[in-house]
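Is this the right way to post structure tokens for a design question? Let me know if I should format differently. Anyway, here goes:
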């Protein structure tokens, strides 16, 4: 059975939800229901993991943690894999995440 792990509201007021053991990320509109789904297996050919933490990057890409396979994965809005960080000596069962841009000017 799949259950949600993390959720946050986007600028559009839609909500982005990670569906842990389901290996999915779902965007939900309060008016229209599900408007976008990313499925690790179906959309990216990855073995189904446990999507935990989510972070929207400034360029619109999504970074998520896969705590089953000890990796961070970045995807584009059109569901393409941009990059995978998997270093077992550094990253073990990642869950919630936050990206800090030390060069940004507030």
């Amino acid at each position: 059975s799949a259950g949600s792990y993390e959720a946050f509201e986007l600028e559009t007021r839609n909500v982005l939800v990670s569906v842990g053991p389901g290996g999915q990320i779902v965007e939900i509109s309060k008016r229209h229901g599900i408007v976008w789904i990313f499925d690790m297996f179906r959309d990216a050919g990855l073995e189904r993991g446990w999507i935990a933490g989510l972070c929207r990057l400034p360029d619109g890409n999504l970074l998520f943690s896969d705590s089953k396979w000890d990796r961070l994965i970045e995807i584009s809005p059109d569901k393409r894999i941009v990059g995978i960080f998997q270093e077992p000596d550094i990253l073990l069962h990642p869950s919630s995440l936050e990206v800090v841009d030390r060069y940004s000017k507030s």
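Format looks fine. Someone answered above. Worth noting: Residues 40-44 form the longest helix (5 residues). Helices lie at 40-44.
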